[in-house]
């Protein structure tokens, strides 16, 4: 691989998810050696840091992936705005929006969710039927907390990252994320370091 992939993330629960999920997605990838996860404290913190980090990063061959929740915004306009923050940095940058938030990716795979919270399996199945398009659910984290009282973002991120299927999901934003990262890794010869 010619350089690491640096993930600029909106929040810590995405880091907890990706540290477990990315080595499953790209066999042989190791955290810090092949990819680095840089969480921020919300959208505004992430957006304020993008231009500065891209300009100041001195690692040769580094490529960047910006991961941000969509939270009901216009996808095309938000992606264009984030790409605008990258202008002038002369970096390879991939922007991926999570519709609407990370928990939609869990909602898209009710079997993994039920496997993580077996005592809530029936309620999870009912919830999943109500949300046939999980990316359209405005606040999936609220839905999950309502159905799974013991649900905690960091813990769920770690546990579900080990179970979510890479290619069998109802979440279009998850499929786009997976495809983009796989293409980025393949273009750099990073599929099997």
TrEMBL record:
InterPro entries: DUF4276. Pfam families: DUF4276 (PF14103). It comes from the Bacteria. This is Cytoplasmic protein.
